[in-house]
Here is the input.
Amino acid sequence: MSSKKILVTGGAGYIGSHTAVELVRAGYEPVLLDNFSNSERFIVARVRKITGRNIRLHTADCSVPAAVDKVFKKEGRFHGIIHFAALKAVEESVAQPLRYYRNNLGGLLTMLEAVARYQVPHFVFSSSCTVYGEPDKLPVREDAPVKNTSSPYGETKKIAERILETFLQSGVPFKAVSLRYFNPIGAHPSALIGELPLGTPKNLVPFVAQTAAGIRKILQVYGDDYGTPDGTCIRDYIHVIDLAAAHVRALGYLEKKRGPFYDVFNIGTGSGQSVLGIVRTFEKVTGVKVPYRIAPRRAGDIAAIYAAAGKAKKVLGWSAKLSLEDALRSSWEWQKGLCPSRGRTRRSA
Ligand code: WQD
Here is the structure.
């Protein structure tokens, strides 16, 4: 097996599972760690099927030091860690801030303690464009001021980046990057893995797909009175395959660096699309109507954000390759495979 073993925390999750597939393609050996609090076990079998590898899984909570120690004692040396595991429901975090701080920051601290104890040289952190809050300028650059975010979830990402940066400044010989994701959408072309929202989807594209599948009656468009061309919010929607590939590029970049080293990258397409634009494009690529109504604005939403994507292109040699149409088409293919007859949004085991 390759000596470049990578621990993927949250590896059974939406972005983690797609990244595990890309890691194998790039010659790495992913090892998954997941507590299945917001993911399904059948996804691990799917990742094994797509890659043709019997990828190892550890069922554990990465915010529990003893559990993480057990994994490292079993697995031995890791070439790197990609840390996805975190709670990420923005609205839920407003209602349960302490749970979010405990889980998201506890998980990061435990993983960094493991980095120090087991000398893991490379660390990629799953961060978010939410750290920018409402940017003053668009497209938003990495050196834009990090502002008060609209939720405890966003605060955990902001604080986590500071923990990472100051950890690396303490003189440890490790190397790390934070990747600030914009809006991940889409699914693997095999339609074997994709986004699996728990219960009613909070995010736009899964809700659109479930409405098209008849699982949801109608899409609520949260506000059409924003200062944007069609009045609906603008976001930078990035295909999850492109996003996964960015993690592989980030590892390659870190391998060439001497520690201690830390940097931050926007991972977005560099262009924005409105909510109604997403609906129109989805209908165009699938031929399926998506009924919607204009509803009141959603608390915490910002009018527009999309990435300045030049730094990742110049430094990582990475840019988004797949189109919005590719992403929405793959979301629909994935949704159709999810027991549409029984109107279930998640396949059972
Ligand atoms: C997009 C737009 C909604 C649902 C997400 C994640 C966050 C971060 C960034 C990773 C908004 C509108 C939505 C619906 C709607 N990612 N919408 N009807 O809020 O940009 O944040 O991506 O860290 O964690 O939550 O994404 O998909 O929820 O919303 O009108 O039923 O779609 O108002 O304008 P958001 P989203």
